[in-house]
Structure formats: C-alpha cells, structure tokens
Amino acid sequence: MGPAGSRTPLGTHPEFSGKRAPAVLLTTRGKTRTCWNYGQKGEHESHCHSSPAHAAWGPEEGEGTGHNGTKLGYTVTDVPPWYLCILLGIQGLNGALRLDLSEFKSPLVHILSTDYYHADSYIAPFEVQMVRQSPGAGVTQLIRTCQHFLTAMGGLVAIPLILSEGLCLQHDLLTQSHLISTIFFVSGICTLLQVLFGVRLPIIQGGTFTFLTPTLAMLSLPSWTCPAWTQNASLVNASSPEFIQVWQTRIREVQGTILVASCFQIFVGFSGLIGFLMRFIGPLTIAPTITLVALPLFESAGDMAGQHWGIAFMTIFFIVLFSQYLKDVAVPLPSYQRGKKCHFSPIYLFQIFPVLLGLSLSWLLCYVLTVTSVLPAAPTAYGHRARTDTRGNVLSQAPWFRLPYPGQWGTPTVSLAGIFGILAGVISSMLESVGDYYACARLCGAPPPPKHAISRGIGVEGIGCLLAGAWGTGSGTTSYSENVGVLGITKVGSRMVIIAGACAMLLSGIFGKVGAMLASIPIPVIGGMFLVMFGVITAVGISNLQYTNMNSSRNLFIFGFSLFTGLTIPNWASKNSALLETGIIQLDQVILVLLTTGMFVGGLLGFILDNTIPASQINVVREASKVNGVDCLLNLSLLPQTTKEL
C-alpha cells in the first residue's frame, strides 16, 4: 500500500474480472479508488468506487495476481533490476521471483504508465511498494530461469531443418547452421519490436510453422524440384558454384514471396482491418486451420525418426518422462542467498528443461553408441545417420562470429504462386497471434488488449515478416504460443525479461558455433522431438473447439468435413497435378500451390460453412467459455457475425 495520494501501478484485483481494465488506482488515506476508463486515450469517461487500499494488490502483501488468480512475481508493468533481467532473459524464467525494495538504490521504481498499450505511453515514476522477498527466492530462483529461450529454441531450430530438404540443403550442414543463426538473429529483432512498439506484452516472436506448408508446396513444383545429384551426399560439393546456385535460387524465391505477403499483414494490422475480419472468423475456422499446419508434416517427422526408431523413441520417452511424469519432482540443488548463505533449494528441474534434457540424453546415447561402434559406419546401413560423427564436422567448419545481414543470399525473386500460398500462412499466423495476445494478457496480469493494441501488434508482426524475408530465414515470424504458456508456469510477466531474452537470441545468431552445434544434432533425435512438437501443435489447433458446443451436429460437421477435406484434396492434387493444367503456367502454379496447402483448403471451408450455416444455442458457447476461464465477451468477439446476431 503506497502513501496517501500516491498512485499504484496496475495490479490485478479480483474485482476486475469481467470488467473494463482500471485506468489507474488512486490510493488516498488508506482507501483505493478504482477507476475504469471506457474511452480511448484522452477521453475521461470513467466510473470509480472505493475499496481498502491493500486489496488493489490482491492477497499477501502486495503480490500481484493474474486474471486467473495466479500470483505474479512481476507483472507486465514491472521492471526488475538489470541483473535479474539479464539472467532471466538469457535463460528464460521460471519460478515466482521476488525482490525486496531495499535492493534498489532509489525508492522510486520506474514503471510503465498503466495505459501501456498506447505506443506513445511514457515511463513515469510511481512510488510503490514492490513485492517482498519470500522464502526460497534469491540465486536459486535465478537458476530456474532457462525456460523461455529454451522453449523457443525448439521451434527456431525445427524450421530450417525441415526446409533444408526443399532447399536441396540436406547434405550441407554449414548452410543449415547459417539459416539457424539467421532465424535466431531476426527473431531477436522482431521480439524487441513487438515488446517495445507492438502489442507491448511480454511475448516472444519466432519463426512460424504456418509458412512451412505453403513454402514446401511451392518448392515441390516441377520447376523447383531438386536435381537428383543433390540427394547423394557423395556428389554434393557445398562450395561449388553449381550447388550454391541451386539452393540460393530457391531460398531467394521464398524470400521474395514472404516480402510481398508481409505487406498484406502490415496493411491489415495498421489499418485496423483485423478487428473487422475477426467478426467473421471463429473457432470453427481457426481449429482446422491450425490443426492442418502440423498434420501435413508427419512425413518429415517420420522420415527423420525412421533413420533409427530406437533412438527416436528414446528421445520421445525422455521428453514425455520429464514433461509429464516428473514435472512435479523437485531436485535439491546448491544455492546461495543473502541471509541464508549456502544451502540446498528444491528446483523443478524436469519441468524447466524437459526438451533440453531429453535431447541431451539422447545425444549422449548416440555418442556412446558411436564410439563403441554399435551404430553402423557404412553410409547405406540402417541407423548410420544416428552416429554423431556424421554431422559433427560442422562445428569445426563454422566461424566463431558471423553477422547475418539483409540480402545475404542474393536479390529476392517473386512468383505469383508463392505469394498466394504464403498469404494463406499469413492469415493463419494472424489468427493464432490474436489468441496469443489475449492469453498473454491474462497470464501476465494485464487487462485485455484493446483493438488498437491488437492492430498494432499484427502490424509489427508484418514488419517482422518483412525483416525475415529480407534476411532470408525461410519463414516469417509470429507470436510463440508455447512461450505464452511458460508465463503461467513461471509467474513472471515482466517485459524486461523478454527484452533480455531477445538480446540472447541476437547474440546466439551472431555466434556461429551456436547454430553449428544445433545443426549437428543426430537426425533420429530431431525426428523424435518433431513427433512430440507436431503432436502438441495439432492438439493446440483442436483445443480451439473448447469454445464451441461440440454436442451440436452443425459444429461437428463443419470441423470434421473441413479437416478431412483439408487432408484429402492436397493429397489428390499432389498426385494428379496434370489434371489441373489450364495452359497458363502462372495460373497452374497458383492453383497447384493453393490446393496442395491443407490449411488453406480446410480453413477456407471452415470459414464459408461457419458463416453460412445457421447457428444456435449461443448460451452453450457462453457457458463453455466461462468453464474454460475465458470471458464470454472475449469469445463472442471471436465468433462469426451470424452467430453473434442470435
């Protein structure tokens, strides 16, 4: 509770649930006067009431809580000390970190204005009582901070490795490492832009899987099919001009399509058109679209895991064991804390590092099997690609420092077919990001983002895709849903932590050895990780159905038909492309790319059917939204207009 007449930064109060976010909390003579601002910035229409001042912070002496009642160590408006930001950002964040005010040199803590969704909001000093240090906080909690960076790492590494086959790079590990470094570097830039100028929430930006399906569909066109000799490792000379020309022409084509398609996202975002589009796009459109992002990738995951199913299932076993069965098991680790000196503190190690531990143990097992000659040395033998010495040379070849720059692969080229295909990925990415913004706001103790913040966030993501196309990552950028989920685990929602994490991604992109190390992971280990990752993405897409009444035959038909057709038509089109020829090459390419992109087919069918088939039982949707902890008004804003009119 602050002194009389002081302003209290936006904490989350139980009374705020389901209401407009308070513009400011005024503390006067032991009473907190809560004011909800119903207008845009500069408007002063508000409604106020008084309550005990301590209630503004929620329970237990100033600990902020999220909209779901979760206690927060730092909310979105808090700025932890600089050393905490570095440690939390580089290694992510985990555990509810708390710090005593005495550790600051000044009693004035700079906190962003409560109207922090506005791009022109300023940093104003407020005299506040920070969250007190609780037992168990200190250096031990800093050790438990690797989650954000490591969580994003899996997705960032996966995209270049999946694209490598379409780009004819499956036998050029050095170039793969450069692509990994580039996507790390650009993701760091985009994260900084989003946190500082975009939606202004603690949300990580990284490569998007929604661009993979249309990109692979474009690269599978007859004009872009890889030459047969690039499939044979013994015939590939990575430094030869002929081979460089083969893969660079393909990635330049991908760059150009992303550059053009990103302009559409920039327009939709900064024009405010996203708010209008969301009136017609509901869960029955989003669910098949996101689900069909991952399902077509089963072949890539199966091919990698099939190099040695034993190693792949060992990786799956470790990841599932750590993330599901041992997540609540605490491991005592040595720690140091002022006042307690050296002591042992329980750390939920398996919950923090499930993927890292799983990959590391499987990688170590591959090394042991390699040095003991259990894995075959013959290149044509089954299990050879599980050996660590088949991909280890890239570590010695990669430079220590390499700065990615725009146009590093040459001047981008553009094709009409690629643009239409990537546009389907752009729309899917925007839909996913809007949901991430709302989820992130709830978890980090911020009010629901207004329309202008969502529009600005989508626009900045479009700029991020523009940068990704200029640098040549092979993909665009989007908000990472898995990192939003990390906020609920760590109870730390400060934007400064994400900024520090973005700086860590920038540094990882500059240090060439980091990308080389990640590119040297054995193929079956990557395949096992992909099976888990793509399975989760599929489940995330299906989980959007929780906001609909799945007892309705209408909803069952729309989702089932859209999903099944989104698998059937691309499969048929890829095998019967000759039947789709019109005689116009450019038109043939557009038709083939669109019909072989499952998320476009399924999403389009879901959109048309959801907005044309009459809906009913809106009350069931409202009840389902409340059961799942989401405000019913928020859900209704995501439903089609035909449904809302009921």
UniProtKB/TrEMBL annotation:
Its main location: membrane. The keyword Phosphoprotein does not apply. It holds the Pfam family Xan_ur_permease. Residues 1-21, 45-64 are annotated as: Disordered. Keywords: Membrane, Transmembrane, Transmembrane helix, Transport. It is found in: Membrane. The chain crosses the membrane at residues 149-167, 179-197, 258-286, 306-326, 347-370, 409-427, 497-519, 525-544, 556-573, 585-609. GO terms for molecular function: transmembrane transporter activity. The keyword Acyltransferase does not apply. It is a multi-pass membrane protein. One of its GO terms (cellular component) is plasma membrane. PROSITE patterns: XANTH_URACIL_PERMASE. Signal peptide: none annotated. Belongs to the nucleobase:cation symporter-2 (NCS2) (TC 2.A.40) family. This is Solute carrier family 23 member 1. It comes from Hirundo rustica rustica. The lineage of its organism: Eukaryota, Metazoa, Chordata, Craniata, Vertebrata.
